Every structure is written in structure tokens, then in C-alpha cells.
């Protein structure tokens, strides 16, 4: 069968758009890094900063910002600079808050400060200085992000070479970031699949967070309460408990939608908060660790833990492969089976599905059970693979992130896996970026939000990059569509 | 000519019957759970004066004989149920539902306070405080949804406004400037929601989610980068309580409603204004038409998109007021994720209140009350885990949404992209 | 006298379709102009241009001799043009007054709605033209006929001189139609001018002062009822003699496959829509169900196909009791179904042609083994069907939404006729299709009958029922009015039955309903 030429064009765009969305988000993120970096701002401008940034003790040290303002070329921490003939050392941060001085005092000390809070842009006089500082800030940040998520390529090569020579001691250190990225990606894959499967079946599961919680609770319960079982029995049971727990939690809104028409978006949000309260109660009551006072569950048995493959602090565990297998299963289920056909039909046109004899109730409940089950498995994965007990503060915002994942992955399992790997590495790398470049980890959320917006409103990206699209066609009113009058 | 015909909605009949059954069920709950676990001679004391210096005229506390009162409440609830079944309360039935629900709550309190004393006013005062951000969120939801745009980004809007009010308020050294900047910032998020949903036709749940993520990330980013590092940037000050002359002297009502800060009064004002605007002005009529049947409005020359832009923008600003309350109206500082789901409870209150300003306010009061009361439960040694009380608002919302008690009907065009012909 | 409204050379081109091709039209004051044409002839497009909902590609509009540009409903209203849409543009939870005043509100003190004054105007208008509407009633609680009157009041409230009524009788009962005609006559007597859009010949003949006929976007004729006959109009409208006879041999009915007895069904408003209906369909015959749209046919079909529960009575297919069975159980009894709204109920527009061809058989061998879909078999079968049923599509992977209406319907027919069937329920199978597709679908339906299936054909087009059916049932207000052999049923008699006159054969034909 021949495919129309537009089809290939569309496919290309389908690949291009997410890439452009990611790139654009990273560029905007870079801009955010620049404008929120006091050093860069200082390099660009001369701001008498008696309001925003307190002075350091001028007897001995001045802050980096201040130094950059005074000496608007690159100043490095530790440099000695001269202020009014006095040698001072530059420090990275304000140390002694008690030595703050007021505006009047500052003026007395530094007559060149001038009046008020005027901002002098030096950009047009010395653009190179500012640009260099901006570039440095972004480079430091993104290099840290990369090394924190994938690793330092040179280190990794050296470690591999040493390992080939028979010395594995460097491996752990070099591959730790990569391991962390994969570990972080695993629950993303599962929750992303959960939302994607819901999307395909026309269900907006915004409650992955709650299902993740309940999955964690049920699996941790099976994990610690059953004792003396062999690993090959106990571990699957524990994981299954997570699936069933999350699945049942998810199927309640599914059932409500089918039977009463209550919108699943509201119901899944409500179920989230019910799940948090339930978990709080269980961890403070029936499931509280004996002898403790903190709201955490007992540790699960060793026989209920997902195996790890490397020693030391490498946390990479079998859950990653489990997630990949689930992605394959979801793909098979959605596109290769009658069940998937039913779910997709209900999602695309519920009315036609009813006419075709498909039970809407069954499909909606099943879709939400599977979706919730995947989110529950994500919870079970984190219990059995990482932390081994259930803390009260269990989740990290999977509920909303998973929607971004499903969108970015176009609700296709493969796309979701790729999107989850991207988000997982970004999250893992952001930890290092925070410690190296003092950029809060939350910048990742900002990137995610921008990616969602660009994916959901591709016109924005098209406008930025001037990508042409065949204009959406104006349609005649339904009553007037006749093929007899094709022009 | 045929005469004017009116069709009686059989659905309404069924609903009114279900409501009657519910009243009776509530009476039975009072009997089964409360009456049977109380014993004769027990007394419950309710404090009716605030525990602080106020302008209100002091009144004596009330002591109730537990068993007799509970019997009375159960009987009244059942009686109202029977009347509803036999005759029906017609339009007043929602009011009666509120009354019976109030009886159930009062019964619960009487039971919980048996052999003890409970400062009712203290609880109610806190309940109004807790209800304020919820109610503002709900009003925001009403503004948006009545015009057909679902706003699940209220949470993010509140969070953003809370952060901006703390930061700008501290920077400018003026709470008023902080308030203004905060409302503008959440209004900007409203504009973003509107542009994405209307201009770019993005699914409204998705644009709302994106804004929530953006707001969470953005506020946490700024908080971690600046606010936690420079404490003086997170110290905007607090609006003080301002007792309304005369009104604040009324016992019970005075301390609960008329001894609050600016934002609470703004809420009361907004409630009335929104009610009048929605039902008695041109803007309100057009808003409701656009939310129910945009094409009909369009064919009469009403600019559907313009109405929606205006409403969502206003909705964003009202949501921001809720965020401002959390900072300038209570703890005068910003903490990461400090809204902790209040935006979503606001949505729940909106549904529970049937997309009506006063209904939503009533729902917010109930939610604020359960929230307050669950904190007191341990002190009262109520043998119910407080977490169950915390679930109650969400459970109630789900039940209402399912149409078990009085169906909550959303504006018909809600969430749908409108395409101009 | 100069025309109050003049359209000259109006052309509207949609991508790939010319909906209006150089149409000229004039309307005089106090005149009822009927705009006649089949579904899809371009009537709605033309009126939407006049009402400012579409911009014409070219052409001129003059009102009272002045050329005007109408770029939105607001402009149209300002020029005195009002439109009563086929699908009512009323906001259900608002009152009559609120709906009427919407967009042109009466206010006092600048912002507050003046409901009292507006209600008084509604009452005034409604009394002036005998419209009998309670201004305080909530729209949702009003019957369809009254809702239409509210639409007319809306237009009059805006002081329109030119009223466009788009297929106003489609949803009305015959009694309501008569009421409407009285109202329209009163309107023109009061100096208004009316454009009446319809595809029903008898209504046009009865009501219009002048008739303009459109076919495939072109104006093909202009006449007055006095100068023409229904047959002549029909010829103009369809473009050839209506007596196009369907080539079919006499039916050879055998044993019954569908037995319906005493069926009662409620509609969405919980009103009894189907009342005590009983009939049979035999193998090898086509039973046509005629009736004005909205007389319970939709609910009856939904009950037969398992989409809507019945409250009493039984349905038996091939001797099995399938009363209130699920759609799947009914399909399993070899029932094929062509739904009324193909885009809504018959197809998944986003799905490929191949997937739409297995929409209700995907779970059976050979398309599925266990729960696994057999993609090779599905695709091979799809290729075969596309060829056999002459579906014009770029490929079996093309989304069905990209096909034309006729080809979409062929996909449904291919899917439903591809398996052995005992009973075919076809609801409005040719609505909105071109003549070529109609003939094709008709021949396929007859082929099914000749292959031994029983066919229940539901159509609001009397001609279609008369051409295809071997036996005709007429439905009126939820009741079966008659069950007659097709060759004994005359057009006039059927028309009367559709209007609820049950002893039609005995009585002379009343003036209003008869056309020819």
C-alpha cells in the first residue's frame, strides 16, 4: 500500500518537534540561569547593591558580586583586589550577615557609589565581559548537568581502560552518575506509561501520584509482613501487590466515570489526597515501624528486594529492566491485542465503540486499572529497589511529571521510555548542578513545563523556527459536504 | 395555538427522593454512631466566647445534655427526611440539606465533646481562616469554568502569588505593593492559561498542568536561589486584623466573621460582587451563555474568546488573592509548596457548591471546618483517626460529583475548545 | 418594487469544494421565499454567508438597495437580518427572557439586567405574532416547538426585517408544523420578509410565494408554486426524473427474523418515545420505517440494537429473545447495523480504514487468535474489501476521517455486509450522499435482501422508503400507524399517516398536508 507523501512529512515533523521543544526549553533554561546569576548580572551592570545584597566586611573581604562590580573583568574567588588602597580578598558568598551596612554608611565608605539605586548597564561599553560571564555561567551549569547525569567522559574512559587492565576500582565512581540517572528514570518510565495508556483509552489519569502511594503501601506491606519466602516467590508477590493496589485505586475513578459520568480528572485528584491521608494514617498506626516514633513502615525482607548488579554505592537495580519489559508489554497490549483495540477505540470515539459492542464500563475500568497498576508498580519499584521501607514523604511529584512524559512521548510506549530517560537524567544531573553551580534543582521542573507547553502548542515552536505547515483546512458545514462537487 | 407547556423533569423527582433518603440516613447515622455510644447524664459544654480579647459582647457558654440533644437532632433529621419524601421542599431543598448536614456536624461535635468542653468559637474562627484561601480558589474556579475554561492551575497561581507577595512585599517594603504585584503575577498565569487554551487550543487540563509545574518549579527555584539565602527578602509583614465597627460586637458572628484581616474582607466583598455580577449583569449573562453554549452566544454577536480571556484573567487574579492570604494574611513568609493542595480543594469546593459563589463559600467553610476540627480531634480523644477527617472533603466531593446527593452539573461547554466558524 | 435583499454572484469555495457557485437571489418585502434543495446543495452555506458566519469568496449583498459587507452576526443583526438555526442556538439552563436578551441586553443603572422590561418585550412580541411563550420558563423544560418560537422571538426582538428559517420543520411534529406556518404567515402580514429553507416539497408548495431551487451549489431554477408542481420541483432539485426506479425483483419473504412485540422505550428526557410497537421483519424482504424525524424511530432502532433499554415488550431475533441484550450479543446473532450518524457512531475517524473495517469483528477469528490481533489477516481482508466495495482511499492505512462522506459510508457498508447476516438495520443510510453513492448503497441493500437477509430500513426520506421497501411501516409520535405492502401504499396516504391521520384511506385528504 502506498503511503501519501504528507505522511512522511508528518512523521519527520513528529520527530523534529519534540527535539526542537527540548532544545528550546534548554535555551530558555540557559537564559534563566543567566538572569538569575548575580555574578552575571554584576558583570553586565553596575548596581549599587545596598538593597539587595548586603556588603561583606570591607575590612578583609568583599563579595564576588561586589568585586565584579568594581572590577568588571573576570574576578575569581580568592583574588586580591584593591578598594581605596586597601587589599581585600574576594569571597564567593556573603559570610557575615552582621556586618551589613546601611546605604549612608556605604556611601561614606565608597563615595563613588553615587546616589540611589540606579542601574548602569555596562553592556554596551564592554559586552565581552558580560557575555563571557554569561557563557561561563551557562557552561558551568550545563557541564555539571551533563556530568551529573551521564558522567565525565574522560573519567569513564579511564575507568574502562583501567578495568580492562584488571583494575575495577575506578568504575564505581565514573559510572555512578549514569546509574543514578537510570534509577531515577525507572519510576518515570512506569508512571509515564500509566498516563500514556490512560490517554490512549480516553482517560485523563491525573492521579498517578496517589496510585504510586497506594502501590507503595500495598507492596511494602507484602514485603515486610510475609516472612521466610524464597526470593522468586516473595519479590513477584511484592511487585504484584503494588500493581493490584495502584490498579484498584485507579479503577475507582474509572468506574465512577463509567457509571455516573463523574469526571476522572477531579476524581483522581481527590483520590490523591485521600491516598496521602490514608498513607499518613497507616504509617502512624497499623503499619508504623515497631518501637519507632517516626511515620515509617518496617523494612521489607531481603527476599522482597530487587537485585542490584554492582557493589558499592551503585544503586542501579533490576527495576530498570522491569520497566522496559512493561513498556514492551504495554506496546503489545495496546497495538497487538483485541484488548488494546477496545481501549483505543473507546479512547478515540466512545460512541462508535458502544455501537461496535464494546462495553464502555469494562474498558474504562480496565484502562484505569492498568494505568493505576503501572503507577502502583512504580511505587513498588521504588520500595523494592531503592528505599526498602515506606516513608511518609514518599513521592516526588510523579503525578504531574508523568503527564509531561506521556505528552512528550506522544502516548507511545517507546516515546515514553525515551522521554523518561531524558527527564530521569535531567533530574539526576540537576543534583550535581545544584552543588557545583548553585542552581536549584527546581530548574528541571521549569524545563519540563516549557517542554509540555511547546509540545502541546506546536504553533509556538513553528513560529520560533519558521516551520511551515500546510494550513488547516476550512471545512464546509456538515450538511453541505457532498463529494459530487469536488472542485 | 398550543398552550404553554412545561415538562416535569423526572430526574428531579428521583433526586428529590434520594435527598429525602439522605436526610433520614443522616438522622440514622446520628442515632447509630453517636446516640448509642453516649450514656445518660453526660454533658457537653461549648465555649461561645473567643479565648482572646475581643470587641464582642461576652455571652454565657452552652451546656447540652448529650443524649437528649442527640436524640433531638436525629429526630429532626429523620422528620425533615420524611417531609422531603412526602411533600418535598422544592427550591428550599438545598438549604434543608445544609441544615441537616449542620445537624450531623453538631451531633458529631456534641458527641465528641461529651464530658468535656469545647471552644466552638475558637474552632469557627480558625475554620474561617482556613476556608479563606479555599474559597478564593473556588471563586477563581467559578470565574473560569462559568465561561467554559477548566482551570486546574489554581494551585500554581496561588503558589506564584504567594511567592511574589513575599518577595515584592519585602523588596518594596510595602504589603500593598506586594499584594498588587502578586495579583498581577497570578493574573499573568491566567493570561498564559487563556492564551494556551484559547489561542493555541491546547487541552485545558494539559495547559493547567503545565502551569502548575511551571509555578512549582519557578517558585521553588526563586525560593532556593534567593529567599532562603537572603532572609530579609522573605519578610513582607502581615495584614493585621481589623474589627469591623458595630458588626464585630455581635456575639459569635462578630469574632468569627468581622474580626479578620483585609483579605478575608476582600473575599466577602468578592462573594457579593461576583454573585451580583453573575446573575444580574450583562457580563454575567454573557459569561454563563458562553460557558453553556458558546455557539449560541457567537451567533448573537458576543465575542466568545474575549469573554473567556477576561474571565480567566480575572480568575487568575482572584486565585492570586488566595495565595496572598497564605503569606500576608497568615504566616508572613513564603515556604516552598506552601499551598499544599488548597487550589485543588478549592476546585472541590466549587463543585460541591454547584458553581455558585455562595454555594462554594459554604463548601469552603465546611472544608475549613473539617480541617480545623481534625487537628482538635486528638485533644478531644475522639476515637477516630484524624486522617479520616482529613479525607472527608475529598470523599464528599466525589460523592457529590457522582450525583448521589443532588447532582452537580458543570457548565456544558466546560473544557471544550471553541472553534469559530 | 425594489427587493429588500439582493444577492449577486455569491460564490463560496472551500478547499476542494465549491459550495456556492455564482448564486443570484432577491427577496421582496412581505414575501416568503423558499430555498429548496437536497442536503448538501449549498443552502446552509448561502444563508451562513448572509448571516455573516462565512465570508463569501466573491459576490455582493445589497439590503434595501445599499451594498453591505456582513462580516459577522453582529453586522447581520444591525442590517435587520435574523436567523433561526436548524440546531437551536438556545442556552438550556437560562430562561426565555435571558436567551432572548442575550447579546442585546436591556439594563438599568448601566450594568444591571432589566429582566422585567425585557420580559415585557418578549410578552409583547409573543402576543403580537401569537407565539404563546412564557418569558420566565427555563429553556430546558420547553418542548421543541416552543423552543423554536423562542428562536423566532429572539430574531424579532432584534427588530429583524428579514428572517431566515433554516430547515425549521425538521424536528417538528405535523401539528407544530401547522402552527409554525400560521406564525410565518402572520410575520409576513406584519411586514416581515422570510427565507424558508427546506427540502420538503409539500411544505414549499404550501407556504412559499416564490421558490428558488439549488443543486450542487448552483441555482437551477426559480418559480412560484402556482406555476409548478411537486414533480417539476423534485426534478429540478435532484437533477433528473425522481421516478428513478430501483431495479429490484419482487420480494420472496420467508420466515421471520425480527419479531418486536409491545415495545416501550423512553427517550433521554424519560418520556415515552416508543409506545407499544409490534412488527415483524422476514427474511428476504425490506421493511421500510417511514416517519418525520423525531417520532421515535431513533429510540426504536437504539432499542433494537442494544443501545437503549426498553421498559416493556420483547425483541426476538431469529427466535432468540434479545430484549435488552447488549450490542455485542445482538451482533452475535448476525445482525448488521448502519447507524444514523456515521461519523459519530459508525466510524472512528482517527483510525485507519483497515481498523474501521474490523470495528465490531476484531475479537473473532480470523482477525484475532486469543487476544492477539492477526494484523496480516486484517490487512489482507481490508485490501479485499476496499476493492470489492469500491472505497476510494489512498490506502488502507489512511485515517477514515480523510475520506469523503460517500466513501466513509462505503467503509461501514463493507464492514457490515462482509459477514453472513440475517438482519440488516440501516438507519438513514444515504443521508447527505451524492446520487452515485446513493444508488450504490441501494443496490447493496437489495443484494442483501436477495441474499436472504431481512432488512429494516429507517429513513425520513419518503421516496427512499417507497423505492426500496417491500413493506412500509409508518411511525408517528412513537406509535406505529400502519403496516402496508409497498405497492398498495400511495404517497399521499403515507404522508397522511406520517402526520398522524390513521384512517387515511377512508377520509378525503385535508388541504394542508396534501401536496400534489
Core attributes:
heterotrimer; A: 487 residues; mainly alpha; ABC transporter involved in vitamin B12 uptake, BtuC; three-stranded mixed sheet; two-stranded antiparallel ribbon; 18 helices; disordered N terminus; disordered C terminus; B: 421 residues; 2 domains; two-stranded antiparallel sheet; 15 helices; 4% strand
What features would you describe in this structure?
The complex is a heterotrimer of chains A (487), B (421) and C (516). Chain A contains 18 helices and five strands. Chain A is mainly alpha-helical. Chain A has two domains: 42-128, no CATH class; 180-438, ABC transporter involved in vitamin B12 uptake, BtuC. In chain A, the strands form two sheets. In chain A, strands 2-4-3 form a three-stranded mixed β-sheet. A two-stranded antiparallel sheet of chain A has the order 1-5. Helix content of chain B is 65%, strand content 4%. Chain B contains 15 helices and five strands. The longest helix of chain B has 27 residues, at 120-146. The two termini of chain C are 32 Å apart. Chain C has three domains: 5-238, P-loop containing nucleotide triphosphate hydrolases (Rossmann fold); 244-334 and 420-516, P-loop containing nucleotide triphosphate hydrolases (Rossmann fold, 3-Layer(aba) Sandwich), CATH 3.40.50; 346-419, no CATH class. Chain C is globular. In chain C, 31% of the residues lie in helices and 26% in strands. Classes of the chains: A mainly alpha (487), B mainly alpha (421), C alpha/beta (516). Chains A and C meet through helix 12 and helix 13 of A and strand 2, helix 1, helix 10, helix 11 and strand 20 of C.
Could you write a compact summary of the structure shown?
The complex is a heterotrimer of chains A (487), B (421) and C (516). By secondary structure, chain B is mainly alpha-helical. Chain B has helices at 10-34, 66-86, 93-112, 120-146, 154-172, 175-199, 204-227, 253-257, 262-280, 282-292, 294-299, 304-328, 342-352, 357-376, 386-401; strands spanning 43-47, 62-65, 117-119, 242-243, 259-260.
The oligomerization state is heterotrimer
What about the largest sheet of chain A? 3 strands, mixed
**Tell me, what's the shape of chain C?**
globular
Q: Helical stretch count of chain C?
A: 17
Low-confidence stretches of chain C: 504-516
Specify the helix fraction band of chain C. 25-40%
Specify the CATH class of the largest domain in chain A.
Mainly Alpha
* Whole-angstrom Rg of chain A: 28 Å
**Estimated structural class of chain A:** mainly alpha
Provide mean pLDDT of chain A, rounded: 82
Assign the structural class of chain C, choosing from mainly alpha, mainly beta, alpha/beta, alpha+beta, or little secondary structure.
alpha/beta
Q: Superfamily at the CATH H level of the largest domain in chain C?
A: P-loop containing nucleotide triphosphate hydrolases
What CATH architecture label of the largest domain in chain C applies?
A: 3-Layer(aba) Sandwich
- Chain pair with largest interface: A-C, 39 and 63 residues
User: Within the largest sheet of chain C, what's the order of strands?
Assistant: 6-9-10-3-11-12
Number of DSSP strands of chain C?
Answer: 24
- Helix-strand pattern of chain A: HHEEHEEHEHHHHHHHHHHHHHH
State the CATH topology of the largest domain in chain A: ABC transporter involved in vitamin B12 uptake, BtuC
Amino acid at each position: 500500500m502506498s503511503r501519501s507523501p504528507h505522511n512522511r512529512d508528518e512523521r519527520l515533523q513528529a520527530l523534529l518537534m519534540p527535539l526542537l521543544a527540548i532544545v528550546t526549553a534548554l535555551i530558555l533554561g540557559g537564559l534563566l540561569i543567566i538572569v538569575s546569576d548575580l555574578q552575571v548580572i554584576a558583570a553586565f551592570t553596575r548596581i549599587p547593591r545596598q538593597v539587595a545584597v548586603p556588603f561583606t566586611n570591607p575590612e578583609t573581604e568583599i563579595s564576588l558580586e561586589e568585586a565584579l562590580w568594581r572590577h568588571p573583568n573576570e574576578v575569581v574567588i580568592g583574588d586580591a583586589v584593591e578598594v581605596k588602597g586597601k587589599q581585600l580578598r574576594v569571597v564567593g558568598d556573603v559570610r557575615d550577615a552582621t556586618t551589613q551596612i546601611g546605604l549612608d554608611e556605604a556611601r561614606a565608605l565608597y563615595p563613588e557609589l553615587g546616589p540611589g539605586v540606579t542601574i548602569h548597564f555596562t553592556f554596551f561599553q564592554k559586552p565581552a565581559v558580560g557575555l563571557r560571564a554569561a557563557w561561563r555561567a551557562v557552561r558551568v551549569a550545563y557541564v555539571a548537568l551533563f556530568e551529573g547525569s551521564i558522567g565525565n567522559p574522560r573519567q569513564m574512559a579511564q575507568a574502562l581502560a583501567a578495568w580492562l587492565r584488571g583494575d575495577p576500582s575506578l568504575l564505581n565512581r565514573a559510572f555512578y552518575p549514569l546509574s543514578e540517572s537510570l534509577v531515577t528514570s525507572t519510576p518515570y518510565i512506569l508512571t509515564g506509561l500509566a498516563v500514556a495508556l490512560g490517554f490512549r483509552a480516553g482517560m485523563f489519569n491525573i492521579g498517578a501520584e496517589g496510585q504510586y502511594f497506594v502501590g507503595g503501601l500495598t507492596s511494602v506491606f507484602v514485603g515486610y509482613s510475609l516472612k521466610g519466602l524464597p526470593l522468586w516467590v516473595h519479590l513477584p508477590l511484592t511487585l504484584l501487590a503494588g500493581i493490584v493496589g495502584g490498579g484498584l485505586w485507579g479503577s475507582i475513578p474509572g468506574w465512577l466515570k463509567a457509571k455516573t459520568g463523574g469526571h476522572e480528572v477531579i476524581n483522581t485528584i481527590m483520590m490523591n489526597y485521600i491516598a496521602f491521608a490514608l498513607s499518613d494514617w497507616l504509617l502512624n498506626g497499623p503499619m508504623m515501624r515497631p518501637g519507632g516514633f517516626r511515620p515509617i513502615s518496617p523494612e521489607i525482607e531481603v527476599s522482597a528486594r530487587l537485585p542490584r548488579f554492582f557493589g558499592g554505592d551503585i544503586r542501579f537495580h533490576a527495576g530498570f529492566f522491569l520497566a522496559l519489559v512493561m513498556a514492551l508489554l504495554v506496546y503489545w497490549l495496546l497495538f497487538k491485542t483485541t484488548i488494546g483495540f477496545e481501549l483505543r477505540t473507546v479512547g478515540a470515539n466512545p460512541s462508535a465503540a458502544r455501537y461496535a459492542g464494546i462495553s464502555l464500563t469494562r474498558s474504562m475500568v480496565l484502562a484505569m486499572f492498568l494505568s493505576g497498576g503501572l503507577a502502583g508498580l512504580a511505587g513498588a519499584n521504588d520500595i523494592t529497589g531503592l528505599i526498602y521501607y515506606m516513608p511518609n514523604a514518599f513521592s516526588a511529584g510523579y503525578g504531574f511529571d508523568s503527564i509531561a512524559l506521556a505528552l512528550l512521548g506522544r502516548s507511545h510506549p517507546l516515546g515514553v521510555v525515551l522521554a523518561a530517560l531524558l527527564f530521569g537524567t535531567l533530574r539526576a544531573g540537576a543534583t550535581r548542578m545544584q552543588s557545583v553551580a548553585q542552581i536549584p534543582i527546581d530548574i528541571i521542573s521549569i524545563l519540563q513545563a516549557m517542554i509540555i507547553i511547546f509540545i502541546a502548542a506546536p504553533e509556538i515552536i513553528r513560529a520560533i523556527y519558521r516551520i511551515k505547515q500546510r494550513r488547516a483546512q476550512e471545512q464546509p458545514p456538515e450538511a453541505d459536504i457532498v463529494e459530487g462537487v469536488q472542485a | 395555538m398550543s398552550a404553554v407547556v412545561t415538562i416535569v423533569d423526572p430526574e428531579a423527582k428521583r433526586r428529590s427522593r434520594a435527598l429525602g433518603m439522605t436526610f433520614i440516613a443522616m438522622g440514622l447515622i446520628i442515632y447509630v454512631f453517636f446516640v448509642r455510644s453516649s450514656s445518660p447524664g453526660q454533658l457537653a459544654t461549648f465555649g461561645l466566647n473567643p479565648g482572646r480579647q475581643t470587641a464582642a459582647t461576652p455571652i454565657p457558654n452552652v451546656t447540652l445534655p448529650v443524649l437528649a440533644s442527640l436524640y433531638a437532632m436525629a429526630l429532626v433529621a429523620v422528620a425533615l427526611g420524611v417531609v422531603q419524601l412526602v411533600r418535598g421542599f422544592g427550591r428550599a431543598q438545598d438549604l434543608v440539606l445544609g441544615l441537616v448536614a449542620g445537624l450531623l456536624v453538631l451531633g458529631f461535635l456534641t458527641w465528641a465533646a461529651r464530658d468535656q468542653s469545647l471552644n466552638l468559637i475558637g474552632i469557627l474562627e480558625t475554620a474561617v481562616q482556613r476556608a479563606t484561601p479555599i474559597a478564593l480558589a473556588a471563586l477563581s474556579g467559578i470565574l473560569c469554568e462559568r465561561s467554559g475554561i477548566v482551570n486546574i492551575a489554581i494551585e500554581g497561581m496561588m503558589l506564584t502569588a504567594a511567592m511574589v507577595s513575599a518577595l515584592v512585599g519585602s523588596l518594596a517594603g510595602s504589603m500593598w505593593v506586594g499584594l498588587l504585584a502578586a495579583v498581577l503575577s497570578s493574573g499573568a498565569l491566567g493570561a498564559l492559561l487563556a492564551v494556551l487554551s484559547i489561542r493555541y487550543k491546547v487541552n485545558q487540563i494539559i495547559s493547567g498542568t503545565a502551569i502548575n509545574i511551571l509555578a512549582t518549579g519557578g517558585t521553588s527555584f526563586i525560593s532556593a536561589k534567593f529567599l532562603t539565602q537572603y532572609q530579609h527578602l522573605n519578610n513582607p509583614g502581615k495584614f493585621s486584623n481589623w474589627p469591623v465597627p458595630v458588626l464585630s460586637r455581635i456575639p459569635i458572628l462578630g469574632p468569627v466573621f468581622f474580626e479578620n484581616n483585609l483579605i478575608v474582607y476582600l473575599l466577602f466583598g468578592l462573594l457579593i460582587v461576583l454573585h451580583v455580577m453573575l446573575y444580574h449583569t450583562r457580563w454575567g449573562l454573557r459569561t454563563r451563555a458562553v460557558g453553556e453554549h458558546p455557539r449560541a452566544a457567537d451567533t448573537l454577536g458576543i465575542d466568545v474568546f474575549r469573554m473567556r480571556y477576561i474571565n480567566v484573567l480575572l480568575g487568575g487574579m482572584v486565585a492570586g488573592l488566595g495565595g496572598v492570604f497564605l503569606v500576608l494574611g497568615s504566616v508572613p513568609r513564603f515556604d516552598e509548596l506552601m499551598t499544599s493542595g488548597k487550589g485543588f480543594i478549592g476546585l472541590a469546593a466549587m463543585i460541591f457548591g454547584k458553581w455558585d459563589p455562595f454555594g462554594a463559600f459554604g463548601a469552603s467553610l465546611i472544608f475549613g471546618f473539617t480541617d480545623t476540627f481534625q487537628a482538635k480531634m486528638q485533644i478531644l480523644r475522639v476515637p477516630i483517626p484524624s486522617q479520616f477527617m482529613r479525607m472527608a472533603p475529598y470523599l464528599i466531593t466525589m460523592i457529590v460529583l457522582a450525583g448521589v446527593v443532588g447532582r452537580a452539573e458543570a457548565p456544558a461547554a466546560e473544557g471544550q475548545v471553541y472553534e469559530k466558524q | 418594487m425594489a427587493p429588500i435583499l439582493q444577492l449577486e454572484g455569491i460564490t463560496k469555495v472551500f478547499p476542494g469544494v465549491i459550495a456556492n457557485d455564482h448564486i443570484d437571489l432577491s427577496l421582496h418585502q412581505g414575501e416568503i421565499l423558499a430555498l429548496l434543495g437536497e442536503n448538501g446543495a449549498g443552502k446552509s452555506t448561502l444563508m451562513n454567508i448572509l448571516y455573516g458566519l462565512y465570508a463569501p469568496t466573491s459576490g455582493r449583498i445589497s439590503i434595501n438597495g445599499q451594498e453591505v459587507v456582513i462580516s459577522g452576526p453582529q453586522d447581520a443583526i444591525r442590517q435587520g437580518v435574523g436567523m433561526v438555526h436548524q440546531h437551536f442556538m438556545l442556552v438550556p439552563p437560562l430562561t426565555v427572557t435571558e436567551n432572548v436578551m442575550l447579546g442585546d441586553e436591556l439594563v438599568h443603572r448601566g450594568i444591571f439586567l432589566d429582566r422585567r422590561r425585557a420580559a415585557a418585550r418578549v410578552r409583547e412580541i409573543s402576543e403580537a405574532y401569537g407565539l404563546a411563550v412564557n418569558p420566565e420558563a427555563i429553556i430546558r423544560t420547553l418542548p421543541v416547538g416552543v423552543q423554536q418560537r423562542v428562536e423566532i422571538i429572539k430574531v424579532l426582538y432584534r427588530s429583524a426585517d428579514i428572517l431566515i428559517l433554516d430547515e425549521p420543520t425538521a424536528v417538528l411534529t405535523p401539528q407544530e408544523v401547522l402552527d409554525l406556518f400560521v406564525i410565518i404567515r402572520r410575520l409576513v402580514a406584519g411586514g416581515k420578509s422570510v427565507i424558508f429553507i427546506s427540502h420538503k416539497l409539500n411544505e414549499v408548495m404550501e407556504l412559499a410565494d416564490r421558490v428558488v431551487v439549488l443543486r450542487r451549489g448552483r441555482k437551477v431554477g426559480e418559480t412560484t408554486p402556482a406555476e409548478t408542481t411537486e414533480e417539476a420541483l423534485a426534478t429540478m432539485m435532484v437533477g433528473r426524473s425522481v421516478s428513478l426506479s430501483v431495479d429490484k425483483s419482487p420480494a420472496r419473504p420467508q420466515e421471520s427474523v425480527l419479531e418486536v412485540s409491545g415495545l416501550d422505550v423512553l427517550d433521554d428526557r424519560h418520556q415515552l418515545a416508543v409506545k407499544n410497537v409490534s412488527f415483524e421483519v422476514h427474511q428476504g424482504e425490506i421493511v421500510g420505517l417511514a416517519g418525520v424525524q423525531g417520532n421515535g424511530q431513533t429510540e426504536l432502532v437504539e432499542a433494537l440494537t442494544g443501545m437503549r433499554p426498553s421498559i416493556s415488550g420483547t425483541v426476538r431475533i431469529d427466535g432468540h429473545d434479545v430484549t435488552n441484550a447488549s450490542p455485542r450479543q445482538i451482533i452475535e446473532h448476525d445482525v448488521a447495523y448502519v447507524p444514523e450518524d456515521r461519523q459519530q457512531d459508525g466510524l472512528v475517524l482517527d483510525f485507519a480504514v483497515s481498523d474501521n473495517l474490523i470495528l465490531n469483528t476484531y475479537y473473532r477469528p480470523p482477525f484475532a487468535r486469543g487476544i492477539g490481533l492477526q494484523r496480516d489477516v486484517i490487512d489482507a481482508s481490508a485490501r479485499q474489501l476496499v476493492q470489492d466495495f469500491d472505497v476510494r482511499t489512498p490506502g488502507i492505512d489512511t485515517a477514515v476521517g480523510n475520506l469523503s462522506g460517500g466513501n466513509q459510508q462505503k467503509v461501514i457498508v463493507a464492514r457490515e455486509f462482509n459477514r453472513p447476516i440475517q438482519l440488516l438495520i440501516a438507519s438513514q443510510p444515504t443521508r447527505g450522499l451524492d446520487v452515485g453513492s446513493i444508488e450504490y448503497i441501494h443496490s447493496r441493500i437489495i443484494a442483501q435482501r436477495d441474499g436472504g437477509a431481512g432488512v429494516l430500513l429507517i429513513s425520513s426520506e419518503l421516496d427512499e422508503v417507497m423505492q426500496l421497501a417491500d413493506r412500509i411501516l409508518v411511525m408517528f409520535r412513537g406509535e406505529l400507524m400502519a403496516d402496508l405492502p409497498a405497492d398498495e401504499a400511495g404517497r399521499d396516504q403515507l404522508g397522511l399517516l406520517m402526520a398522524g391521520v390513521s384512517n387515511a384511506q377512508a377520509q378525503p385528504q385535508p388541504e394542508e398536508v396534501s401536496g400534489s
